[in-house]
């Protein structure tokens, strides 16, 4: 595939990225009588497999990784090629991206935007707000390790497999009567890539191995069984390349001989060989590049040399499977799975292949485990896999869709730990972004625009049409709260609170009052990458910014309460949030993308940013905001289904949230086409961009379980194409691990394990018929209520598992969570308040309830429990309309305690209020398992 430099891509984007970038799709033809090989069957079909080698096609090679080290494995008979990456090898070196001309020109830029002089505003942004340099730097490869194994003649029974259950690529074939097998895996515990070659006839393995690289490198042979590649990253954008790296490959043989000289490793007549690859980098962090890269490479290699292959393999498996095995999924299998993976993709449009959806789902989880681990860099636009010095969009971090999308499946598919690199990056950005905030806006806090790189560039890049977007850092910082909703980890929140606060502080300092509408708005900003008039995207207060800022300011305020600090800041954050522009329905019945009802010149643009409120956020919901919900559907109809890989993936998530199973599944199918999925299942923008893989995994999870609305909604968008199946180990906000088994499109059995005490609200079609609920831990039947026909509510206890099932359904072992909750999950919230055995109740007599704050988009309530309560162990607040319909349920928010008084605050209702005057709402608080039912009525007046 042709490499795409940033500038080429920008030219293409200017012309409308979709059309300009589409390559010719590849093809693959069905094999008559094909059957899945034993390795794929042993993996329960969770394997990519092929009957041909990758040749020179990088998009046929198979990825392995341990978060830091990555390799693409080609599996050619004559030459094995491992294309190597290390996740800190970035072009250039530390730089300060802030442009000191910005702040002095900001007032004039804003004036031009408010005067609708968008083009003139963009000109001034070009002159004064662009980063230094005006583009960011690229993630670059280490090079290749090639094993020249001899001619490929006389070969039969060739297969190549990437087993997702073992994170191992295996290549095996028969050549001249000898069965050769190669296994490759990247070990996180031992920090090496392991290539194991075996043959079933003694002394049959002979090869020469060498490194090569597009970087500036020197090869050598440091000892008789090792070769080395010492290099430095490339110069770019006027910044001198400064990341030094050392790659070592060392052979351990049984039988035969091994020698190394002049950078060539020679193995002759061996019976088995283990090649260990170790890579060290001098990158310490975004501002320091003087690490002992040679020492790091050698130390890891020497340590791995003392470990035999069996132990290397078993440690790798234990480490990997502890993550991967948390989620099991079965969507059914047809004979389509007996074709090689590339054939399955090529035939997908005409085949019934439900297992491919399961494979795609698990591949995303595999890729996240392999590219993002505690202590590594976050997964970039290509995860960690890149063979080019000038990769598309620099293989960096694009924040206006791609980087957040990479992490959508992290919590929902039970890979909480894999999320951590993002929070490390956010803390870095809170430093580099603070300089940009000061220099370009004269503001406190920190800001990051639409991209960042290994050096944590935070300024405007690429040009105003793309780069002049203020809310990149805001989106990333809001993920801190989102992650907390899953884990309940107060220590995590405390550690990351300063970055969250700083992101909010920037907007408290910079939002400006719209001259005619009176709302507080960002200016200048854009609705990502979409021109509202020809060639201009810059505007004030685009809808996505307002949605992101509602989440950010809420998150910062709520976090400040959990952490117990900053009351003044909190009040300011809330007051500011209340003055953000509400979402509006435009003339076409759509969600308006900008403050004005403009019609975008490019109607089918890939970004649908203004539906951020539908997904990933929860500001547009079916039951909470019915009008906006319908407008969201209309918005998607107007934009159409087509788009880049990541755009399709986001649309799976959108349609899942719209509970439209057929459409969500159509989008899954649209993604599984040869122009959107490479033979190795890498998602194609095109070109390759990994966000589509992660977005697809997230979308499939959203089709099976949603938890954004204060309840666990089971099978909200189950397509007819998956009539029977099971999934287990999915995670829901509030700290739940969930399994479900279904047949005929309906749940037979739901199993939920609670991390914390609380009130569990389950929504499923199952509850419209006969069902039973059991506390699996002791076989008892917990008390339940039925707030809606398809909703069951019950009090749950930390560590216990609950099962709801149709009467007579035999428990399905695979839907019961088998692995413990992620280690980051704390027992209760907050840890400073020890659980108590007395179950005091916030009954109507003991509690007072009042609306504390209201605004056009919602309001907050407060319940104060004044007698008999010693501690809160779990609580929820439910808002209902006067007719009893539940409109919102809240688990997040804050409670505090002073003596015997317990206060639950900020139990926000975030839906739309019916227009005009006063609306009566019911406010139901459940604290320590008791509830004030019937609800206390509160009246809210729309302002
Ligand atoms: C944004 C998108 C492009 C591409 C790039 C990396 O600019 O609009 O489609 O995904 O990021």
TrEMBL record:
<dbReference type="InterPro" id="IPR008965">
    <property type="entry name" value="CBM2/CBM3_carb-bd_dom_sf"/>
</dbReference>
<dbReference type="Pfam" id="PF00553">
    <property type="entry name" value="CBM_2"/>
</dbReference>
<dbReference type="GO" id="GO:0030247">
    <property type="term" value="F:polysaccharide binding"/>
</dbReference>
<feature type="domain" description="CBM2">
    <location>
        <begin position="838"/>
        <end position="943"/>
    </location>
</feature>
<dbReference type="InterPro" id="IPR012341">
    <property type="entry name" value="6hp_glycosidase-like_sf"/>
</dbReference>
<dbReference type="InterPro" id="IPR019546">
    <property type="entry name" value="TAT_signal_bac_arc"/>
</dbReference>
<dbReference type="InterPro" id="IPR001919">
    <property type="entry name" value="CBD2"/>
</dbReference>
<dbReference type="Pfam" id="PF14498">
    <property type="entry name" value="Glyco_hyd_65N_2"/>
</dbReference>
<dbReference type="Pfam" id="PF22124">
    <property type="entry name" value="Glyco_hydro_95_cat"/>
</dbReference>
<dbReference type="InterPro" id="IPR049053">
    <property type="entry name" value="AFCA-like_C"/>
</dbReference>
<feature type="compositionally biased region" description="Pro residues">
    <location>
        <begin position="819"/>
        <end position="842"/>
    </location>
</feature>
<feature type="signal peptide">
    <location>
        <begin position="1"/>
        <end position="27"/>
    </location>
</feature>
<dbReference type="InterPro" id="IPR006311">
    <property type="entry name" value="TAT_signal"/>
</dbReference>
<dbReference type="InterPro" id="IPR054363">
    <property type="entry name" value="GH95_cat"/>
</dbReference>
<protein>
    <submittedName>
        <fullName>Alpha-L-fucosidase 2</fullName>
    </submittedName>
</protein>
<dbReference type="InterPro" id="IPR008928">
    <property type="entry name" value="6-hairpin_glycosidase_sf"/>
</dbReference>
<dbReference type="GO" id="GO:0004560">
    <property type="term" value="F:alpha-L-fucosidase activity"/>
</dbReference>
<keyword id="KW-0732">Signal</keyword>
<dbReference type="InterPro" id="IPR027414">
    <property type="entry name" value="GH95_N_dom"/>
</dbReference>
<dbReference type="Pfam" id="PF10518">
    <property type="entry name" value="TAT_signal"/>
</dbReference>
<dbReference type="GO" id="GO:0005975">
    <property type="term" value="P:carbohydrate metabolic process"/>
</dbReference>
<feature type="compositionally biased region" description="Low complexity">
    <location>
        <begin position="804"/>
        <end position="818"/>
    </location>
</feature>
<dbReference type="Pfam" id="PF21307">
    <property type="entry name" value="Glyco_hydro_95_C"/>
</dbReference>
<dbReference type="InterPro" id="IPR012291">
    <property type="entry name" value="CBM2_carb-bd_dom_sf"/>
</dbReference>
<feature type="region of interest" description="Disordered">
    <location>
        <begin position="802"/>
        <end position="846"/>
    </location>
</feature>
<dbReference type="InterPro" id="IPR013780">
    <property type="entry name" value="Glyco_hydro_b"/>
</dbReference>
């Amino acid at each position: 595939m042709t490499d795409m430099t940033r500038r080429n891509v920008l030219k293409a984007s200017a012309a409308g990225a979709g059309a300009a970038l589409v390559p010719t799709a590849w093809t693959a033809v069905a094999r008559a009588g094909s059957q899945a090989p034993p390795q794929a069957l042993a993996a329960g079909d969770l394997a990519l497999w092929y009957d041909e080698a990758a040749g020179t096609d990088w998009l046929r090679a198979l990825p392995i990784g341990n978060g830091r080290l990555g390799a693409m494995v080609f599996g050619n008979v004559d030459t094995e090629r491992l294309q190597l990456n290390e996740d800190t090898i970035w072009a250039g070196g530390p730089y300060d991206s802030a442009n000191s001309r910005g702040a002095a020109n900001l007032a004039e830029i804003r004036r031009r935007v408010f005067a609708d002089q968008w083009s003139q505003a963009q000109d001034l942004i070009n002159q004064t707000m662009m980063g230094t340099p005006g583009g960011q730097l690229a993630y670059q490869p280490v090079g290749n390790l090639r094993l020249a194994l001899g001619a490929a003649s006389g070969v039969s029974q060739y297969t190549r497999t990437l087993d997702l259950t073992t994170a191992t690529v295996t290549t095996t074939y028969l050549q001249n009567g000898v069965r050769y097998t190669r296994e490759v895996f990247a070990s996180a515990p031992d920090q090496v890539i392991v290539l194991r070659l075996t043959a079933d006839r003694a002394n049959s393995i002979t090869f020469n191995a060498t490194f090569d690289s597009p970087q500036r490198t020197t090869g050598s042979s440091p000892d008789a069984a090792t070769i080395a590649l010492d290099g430095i990253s490339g110069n770019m954008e006027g910044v001198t390349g400064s990341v030094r790296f050392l790659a070592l490959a060392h052979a351990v043989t049984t039988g035969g001989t091994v020698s190394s000289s002049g950078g060539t490793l020679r193995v002759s007549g061996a019976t088995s060989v283990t090649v260990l690859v170790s890579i060290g980098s001098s990158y310490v962090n975004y501002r320091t590049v003087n690490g002992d890269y040679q020492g790091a490479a050698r130390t890891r290699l020497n340590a791995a040399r003392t470990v035999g292959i069996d132990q290397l393999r078993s440690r790798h498996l234990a480490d990997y499977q502890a993550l991967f095995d948390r989620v099991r999924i079965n969507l059914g299998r047809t004979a389509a799975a007996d074709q090689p993976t590339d054939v399955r993709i090529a035939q997908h449009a005409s085949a019934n292949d439900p297992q491919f959806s399961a494979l795609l789902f698990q591949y995303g989880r595999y890729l996240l485990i392999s590219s993002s681990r505690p202590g590594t860099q976050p997964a970039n636009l290509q995860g960690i896999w890149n063979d080019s010095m000038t990769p598309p969009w620099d293989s960096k971090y694009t924040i206006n869709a791609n980087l957040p999308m990479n992490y959508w499946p992290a919590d929902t598919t039970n890979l909480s730990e894999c999320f951590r690199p993002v929070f490390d990056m956010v803390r870095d950005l809170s430093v580099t972004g603070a300089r940009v905030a000061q220099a370009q806006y004269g503001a406190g806090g920190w800001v990051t625009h639409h991209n960042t790189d290994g050096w944590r560039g935070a300024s405007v890049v690429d040009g105003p049409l793309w780069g002049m977007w203020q809310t990149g850092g805001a989106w990333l910082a809001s993920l801190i709260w989102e992650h907390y909703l899953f884990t309940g980890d107060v220590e995590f929140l405390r550690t990351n609170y300063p970055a969250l606060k700083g992101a909010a502080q920037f907007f408290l300092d910079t939002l400006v009052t719209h001259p005619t509408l009176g709302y507080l708005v960002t200016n200048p900003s854009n609705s990502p990458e979409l021109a509202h008039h020809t060639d201009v995207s810059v505007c004030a207060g685009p809808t996505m910014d307002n949605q992101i800022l509602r989440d950010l300011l809420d998150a910062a305020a709520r976090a400040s309460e959990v952490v117990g600090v900053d009351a003044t800041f909190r009040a300011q954050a809330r007051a500011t949030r209340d003055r953000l522009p509400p979402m509006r329905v435009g003339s076409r019945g759509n969600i308006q993308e900008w403050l004005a009802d403009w019609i975008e010149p490019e109607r089918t643009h890939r970004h649908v940013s203004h539906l951020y409120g539908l997904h990933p956020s929860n500001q547009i919901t079916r039951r909470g905001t019915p009008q906006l919900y319908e407008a969201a559907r209309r918005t998607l109809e107007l934009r159409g289904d087509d788009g880049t890989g990541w755009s399709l993936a986001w649309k799976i998530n959108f349609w899942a949230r719209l509970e439209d199973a057929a459409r969500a599944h159509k989008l899954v199918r649209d993604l599984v086409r040869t122009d959107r999925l490479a033979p190795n299942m890498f998602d194609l923008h095109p070109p390759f961009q990994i966000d589509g893989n992660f977005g697809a995994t997230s979308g499939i999870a959203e089709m099976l379980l949603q938890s954004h609305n204060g309840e666990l909604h089971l099978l909200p968008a189950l397509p007819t194409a998956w009539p029977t199946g099971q999934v287990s180990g999915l995670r829901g906000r509030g700290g739940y691990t969930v399994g479900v088994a279904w047949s005929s499109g309906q749940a037979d059995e739901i199993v939920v394990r609670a991390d914390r005490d609380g009130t569990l609200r389950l929504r499923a079609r199952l509850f419209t018929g006969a069902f039973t609920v059991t506390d699996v831990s002791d076989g008892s039947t917990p008390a339940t209520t039925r707030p809606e026909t398809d909703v069951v509510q019950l009090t749950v206890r930390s560590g216990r598992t609950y099962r709801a099932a149709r009467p007579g359904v035999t428990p399905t072992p695979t839907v019961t969570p088998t692995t413990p909750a992620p280690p980051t999950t704390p027992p209760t919230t907050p840890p400073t308040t020890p659980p108590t055995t007395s179950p005091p109740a916030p009954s109507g007599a003991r509690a007072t309830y009042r609306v504390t704050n209201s605004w056009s988009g919602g309001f907050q309530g407060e319940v104060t429990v004044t007698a008999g309560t010693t501690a809160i162990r779990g609580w929820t607040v439910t808002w209902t309309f006067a007719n009893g319909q539940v409109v919102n349920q809240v688990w997040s928010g804050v409670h505090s305690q002073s003596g015997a008084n317990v206060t639950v605050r900020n139990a926000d209702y975030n839906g739309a209020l019916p227009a005009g005057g006063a609306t009566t709402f019911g406010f139901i608080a459940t604290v320590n398992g008791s509830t004030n039912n019937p609800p206390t009525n509160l009246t809210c007046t729309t302002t």
